[in-house]
## 1
Amino acid sequence: MAASHAPAAATARRHRVQADTTSEKDSTISTDTFFASLARFRDKVLPARTQNWLTTPRGMWTVFAAVHLIFLGLAALLSLRGEAFSDTFIYRIWASVDFNGDRVLGPSPWVYPILALVPMAVAYIFGGGPFLFIWVLMISSLNFLAVGKLTSWGRNRKAIPAALWWIAFTTLLAWLGFARVDGLTAPVVLIALSLGVASPFLTSFILSVVTWTKVWPAAVVLALFTVVKQRVQVVLAGALVTAFVVVLAVSMGALPKLLNFLLEQGDRGMQLEATFTTPWLWMSVLGIGGSHMYMNRDINSMQVDGPGSSVMSVLMQPLLVIAALVVAALIFWALHTGKRNGGADRTALLLFGSLALVTAFVVFNKVGSPQFMVWLAPAVAVGLSYQWKAWRVPATMLIGVAVLTFLVYPLFYDALSHDNAIMAAVLTLRNLLLVVLFVWSVRQLFLMGRNPSLIPRHDAVASSVDAGTAPVGPSANAASAVAEPSPTKEP
């Protein structure tokens, strides 16, 4: 009698599972119509033959060379005149006085972690004249390595559109990606994410090096630590890099200054471009409550002061830490809950988790420097190379972020800093996009835990690429546009 009920019970369980799966279906309005419209617009602008050519290795490297030769040419012209550009003026001064903070006016070189001083010293090896050209040459070389790694040096044709997106994003940000330390770290993080969970020690080692160059890659280290099985390897790699850094600091007689890059941020006010500064930005524009913008010359930063801004400035650092820990906990939850709901994709978790954590580092930061936007691109570029459709939404948002950031800096920053309402609206829209990007990435992590089948798998694609079986043929509609609709699950 009991046996006769077993098939019925099993059938009932299957129906319940199917019902649960149906109820778990992603209810977000489909973006296919929007991206189909973008694809049609792209097809009108770019002939199919051009699109096909762009997705060839020759097309990709031609675009890469054209963009970087332009920046190298501009850097060469400025260097021949004995000039630099943007923050490289400050870097050059620091290098000229052997990074002695007592001999400079304005920000100290120790606002950066110690390894950031190494490329500055290299760029100054022939003196101040060619400093900018050598600096841009170093970043161009790292971008070359990043694009090469991302596409397996052109062999992985599926990843070429992702490389073109990376080049386009870099181009739109202009000098923000070439005249700041951030431009050195972003391509290195891209390389590390391309290695991913398959090589946790090497990935952690590379990320630790760039964390001691600019702090933000620590967010990616945290995501890596949360996702991989071999967490000891992640910690060991970080410890080895840190030990080397300590020895370097001792040899330079700079051990007491080793952590100054953390301590010097504590007294900062709310920077003009920071996301949480937006209310005070508008109070300054509208002349409310005595709010006003001012230049903090000690750190070369435009800030906003007004009712409650000093309290918010104090709260921002603990708020950032809390946000990072909450996202890390969500990654951990998605990893283990995803196992029970059909299997966890560690590659996708690393990429979505990195994007969520890095975006948290931007959104919950009282420092909102425009070059921070460079941080957001590596995870998206690598994600696009695995699963185009799963990443086209953040890729599109970041193109918008890049355009709006370029309008803010360098084009109309002077107007913004003089309470221009139009530029305040542009900056507000940019900051709103950053908040939406953070919410989107957090939601992806939630979906990966609750119902992994809603997110196309990344690890299967990674395995096929490693085995040399990834699709290699270009299509007329798979060129450089973010608009390309693709199947829900790609091979």
Note: Confidence is low (pLDDT under 50) at residues 1-28, 467-491.
## 2
Amino acid sequence: MTISTATGAERRLEAGWFQRLAWAALVWVSLGFLVWVPFLYVAIRRGRPSDWGAFASFTLYECVILPWSLVTEEGDGDAILGVVVVVTMLMATGLLLFALFDARTRPAPAPAYGAGAPNPYGQPTYQQGSPYGR
């Protein structure tokens, strides 16, 4: 299912490498507590059901991981909790860098008008050196 705008075009969300790295840095600097924020941004901007699903899954992750981290009473911490947090942060980073944003589209190059090629007005182009246009 694709979401269309009023003009019928599919919504795209392009991002350069600086923006992708900034979103990934937010995940790591916040130690995974704000992992849901970039996915909310993408879901609001693009509105695809898959984007809302990714946002919902990372929000559910936060709702489970916070109480889990407060309930554990081990002295050195819970090793399983640490592995879950690191794997989730790596997965979010991979999604943010390579899968979430659309690839940039470059405009098509203008067609070259050469000898004998039609120009936009439908007339053949003039060849240099021929005084009669042949």
Note: The chain is about 50% helix and 0% strand.
## 3
Amino acid sequence: MKERLLFLSARRHAPEQDKEEDLRTKNILGILLERFDIDLLEDYRWRRDTPDLHSPSLKAHQVQRPAVLRRTLLSPLNRLRTGPPGTGGSKPLRTAITEMCRQHTYSHVFISNNMPGTALDLVASLLPGAFIITDARRTGGRETERQADGANGFSRGYHKLNAALLRREERRLMNRTGLLLTATEWDALSYKALSFMDAGKVHVIPPYIDLNMPPYADQGNGCRENLVILHWNMHTVQGREKALIFIENIYPLVKAAVPDSSCCILSGNVHPEVAAAVKRDTSIEIIGEPAQAASYMRRARAAVTSLEEGCGHPARILEAWAQRTPVVSGLKGTEALYCEPGRNILLAETPDAYAEHLVRLLTMPELGSIIAEQAYRTLRKHYTADGVKKKLMSLI
């Protein structure tokens, strides 16, 4: 008989936004279902279908978050403790967790990275004997520290106090959890630096690709075209800005050097301004159907990703690597992966640099093949499903 696990997750983003947090939740759930019977409790603001994991070992529950009636001008002190509005501290969520703990005995509890704060305190008080696993990120803590370094006057003191309170609560989180998972080495090192005593609890569970499943299995060697793929979330403000920069400032330079080149945008939703810009150039196409994305990626000589805040996720790069398509990306965000500039990825910060890299990949296919092969080797070594599963199971 399987042990029972309580999995707590939250959904903070609107349905039209890309579901990167949902993807990580689904992947980790898929691994844990091999060992546990799982009760999934989701705290949501926008209702959406639960992860598509048809398993008799998974039972999904949902609780709706109360509406936020007001917003403060200043972010509250001690934000990790309170979490996003309603996360971990809403009365309906507290009631649901309490009732589930009365009905079942849980040997393990998993708290996803979008649901820190008082959910941990509640679980620890209701299930003192359970092994608590926390999936965490230090994005908020690092951002607060940067704000403190750049602020002046009264706001500097405010941000420094907030950063100190966050560090205290992050150390407290590390102390109360049995296993703390991060998606990147960067976050793992940041947590380890906070508490030497609890540093051994911190481990990296990166995003992964299952090369044994479609669309990556049996893909063959397709014929490459002078096609450039844009692959990030283009519905957000940040995604729109990056897309327009590419369409208006980078792509014309590529077309001037390689007249027969074309461009394809892989995004389920695009901002209306991006859609309008695409209509002005017939060589650019939008593909919103996920089932078609893989075939376009396999045909392309280059993929452009953006990991800026609000744009994308390291999985975008992994998807291109799995299709043996060389990637051009910005510096920001690539610390999330084992990236070696010039070896398994090309990095750029200016429109001219992006255009130069893309022209090289379009006109020198042998260069793209070398970079793509090195990227594929990196993927197989660090980001395949089998390796990640073995690591996570060995930690629990």
Note: The mean pLDDT is 84.
